[in-house]
Amino acid sequence: MLKHLAPAAIALLLAIGVAPRAAQAICNVDYRVQPGDTLFSIAETHYNDRSRWTLIYYSNQHVLEGPSVIPGKTLHIPCAQQATTPDATPLRKDDAEMKLLTGGGFAPFTDQTLPGQGMVTELVNAALELTPAPVSYSITWEKDWSKHLFPMLDEKQFDMGFPWLKPDCAANPTDERCVNFHFSEPLMTIPIMVFVRADAAFAFDSDADMLGKTLCRPEGYYTHDLDRGDRRWLREGKLTLVQAADPGACFRKLMAREVDGVSLNLFLGANTLIAEGLRDQVIPLERPLSEEGLHVVISKRHWRGTSHLYRINAGLKALKVDGRFQDIVSRHLELFWAQLQ
């Protein structure tokens, strides 16, 4: 297939009734962004499936400015990766020099039932196998996430933990995570979306569109992105935040019209609305509310903090250079969206 496909050619294909299906995707091509394009619309054109916009998002992090597309920029449209067996991990051993901690129930990122034990777990494995200063390592699973940072990592029962969001430490230096932990470079970023009723007249073209709205997030969910930069939505009462017991409760409030939107990471939101039977009744707005990185963390009191973080960061860099990073992410994205069909 041609590496460069003109927008006019794509339009012609659509006009004559050969819109791409899953087996006929217009992929492994470069696409020049046109005025009015979004990642959703580009995915619909190339994959005939708007949900696969994340394939484009993760393949073009070096081009995109956040989640927005800019007319005139060229994006690579990857083909979906087929399921493969995760790479071998000869350095991963039970009796290891470096001990990592993670937990389950966080699809598609970490869970022992997922292929490769999840996207982020596989990225960590691959980074530690590729790092220029390799050591043996183990990964322990603790289902109670509330124990991970305090006391388990803070007391150095384990060397490092993943995956964790990093607060805005510049704006909130006294946040307990900022005070007590060092963070790796982001393993990956995740888009934080606003989910709304499909029949709602809710536009989110700029931050001003959020003023006066009521959003729901689960109890314990972070809020720093709502006050980041010049937003100050919560601090100045520009937006109302309702906190519910769990993501499902937020969606039930949405359907009862008690809130205008539900703000969650894309993957948790997609999983939850399917579980709640709301596939056609709730949709994500096309503009993410924010992007958050998932990191490896280590206690600031750990005597090998610098060297261990170097191993993760150097391995991640090597993964991206040789293309394996994108292969792993694309494969897990395809598995995630396929199981929601």
UniProtKB/TrEMBL annotation:
Keywords: Signal. Coiled coil: none annotated. SUPFAM superfamilies: Periplasmic binding protein-like II. It holds the Pfam family LysM. InterPro entries: LysM, LysM_dom_sf. Residues 1-25 form the signal peptide. Residues 29-77 form the LysM domain. This is Amino acid ABC transporter substrate-binding protein, PAAT family. It comes from Phaeobacter piscinae.
